[in-house]
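User: Thanks for the earlier help. One more: non-specific serine/threonine protein kinase. Can you show the sequence and predicted structure together?

Assistant: Of course, both are below.
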Amino acid sequence: MANCQMIHLRPWLASTLVLYMLLQNGGAISPDGEALLSFKNSIVGSDTVLSFWRPEDPDPCGWRGVTCDRITKRVVYLSLKDRRLSGPISADLGKLDRLRILALYNNNFYGNIPSDLGNCTELQGLYLQGNYLSGVIPNELGNLSQLQYLDVSSNSLSGSIPQSLGKLSKLVNFNVSNNFLMGPIPSEGSLTKFPDSSFAGNKGLCGKQINEACKNDNGPSNNSSGPLSALGQGGKKKYPARLLVSAFATIGALLLVALMCFWGCFLYKKFGRNESSSIAMDVSGGASIVMFHGDLPYSSKDIIKKLETLTEEHVIGCGGFGTVYKLAMDDGSEFALKRIVKMNEGFDRFFERELEILGSIKHRHLVNLRGYCNSPTSKLLIYDYLPGGSLDEVLHERSEQLDWDARLNIIVGAAKGLAYLHHDCSPRIIHRDIKSSNILLDGNLESRVSEQQEIVDPHCEGLQAESLDALLSVAIRCVSSSPEDRPTMHRVVQLLESDVMTPCPSEFYDSNSE
C-alpha cells in the first residue's frame, strides 16, 4: 500500500517542483534585459519607439530590434537604425558580452562612444554612423578582436584614431569619414589596407592612406589632448575633476567670446577704418579662394582684387562672430562678406570642416554660402546678399509694417529651411541659434535661415483669428515640456500649411535642395 502511494505521489511532487521553479523565475528579468532597459531609459522619448521594452516582460528576446541566440537566450543582435532616437548611448550596453551586431546608425544619439563597448568581445559589426556622437574614439575598441565592420562616419568625433584599432586583424570595412579627427593615421596593422574614402572629411588627419605627410609633432598622443579628449576618456567615476574643470572652462570660454564680441563691436564703432584696412592686409598677406558652387563667373584673382577695395563704408552689420561687408562685383552682382578672425590651428581645422558641410547645402530657404577666402589671419565667408535685410530689422527698425500674410509666408519659409537641415542633410544639422536677426529676407520678403508684451503686433494688418489660433497651437506644441510631444520640423511645416495658411498647401515645398 505504501509503495502504491509513493507511485502516485512522485508525479504530483515533480509537477509541484516544476511549478515552483517557474513561479520563482517568471518575474525575474535577465541581466541582458536589465542592460537593455538601462539603454532605453537614457533615450529621450523612448516610450514611443521602444514601448514593448518593459520590465514586466522577463524575456527581452521578443523585444523590438533584439535578437537572441536560440540556445543560450543571450542577446546577440541589437538593431535600432533610422528610429530618430535621441540621447546618450548607455555604457550598460557593454554588459551584453555576447553581442555580435550593434546597429544604431542614422539616429540622433549624442555624447561619447562608451568605452565599455570594448567588453563586447564577440562583437563583429559596430554601426554608429549618422549620429551626433562627440569626444574621442575609445582605445578599448581595440579589444574587439572579432570585429569585421566598424563605421562611425558622419558624427562629430575628435581626437586621433587610436593605435589599438590597428590590431583588429579581421576588419573588412572601416569608416571614420566626416568627423573632426586629427593626427596621424596608424601606419601599421589592419588600417593600412583601407582606401582614402574611409578617412575623408577629416581635415586634420595625415598618413600614407590619404597621401598626406605628417608634420613632426611633439604634442600629446592619442586621446589625451584638450578638454574634449579628457571628456572622452574619463567617466563620472574615473575623472570627475577633469569633467568639472572642462565644464568651467567651457563656461569661461563662452563668457570670453561674448566679451570679445562686445569689445569687437565697440572697437569697430570707434576705429572702423582700422578694421577695414585689416581686410586688405589679410588678403595682401597671401590668400586663396575656396568655392563650393561653381556657378560664379569670377576668377580667384578677380575676387581678391575686390576684397582689397573694401572699406568701412561697405560694412552692413556687426554680428556675434564678425563684421559683415557688402561686396559688389563689376557686373553688378552683390554678395555679403563675413570676416572671422582665426583663433588657433585646431579651431581653423574644425571651422573648415563646418564650412564644407554648410557649403554643400543649397536650398531655397537657406542662405547660400558660395565659398570663402582663406588668409593667414582670417576667413572671409562669401554669402548671397539678400536685400530685404533681417526679420528683426523689418519688425523693429523700419517704418513699413508686415501684414499677416507676409508674416505667415516668412514663418513657413523659415520652417522649411529648418526642416531641410533637420531631416534631409547628412549629417543632420541643428541650427541652435534661431532668432529674428538670423532670418534674412530677399526682395520679395521670402525668408531664409542664416545664422512678449502682446501676442499680436498692433501694427499688423489683415489678421485672421482662425489662422492665429492655429499658429499658436503649433507654437505651444513646439515648446511642450515632454520632448516626445514636440513635432518634428517636417510635421511643423505640414501643420503650418494645412492649418495656418490657406486650405490648399503651397505648391513649392520640396525638402530636397534646388
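User: Great, one quick takeaway?

Assistant: The first strand starts at residue 66 and ends at 68.
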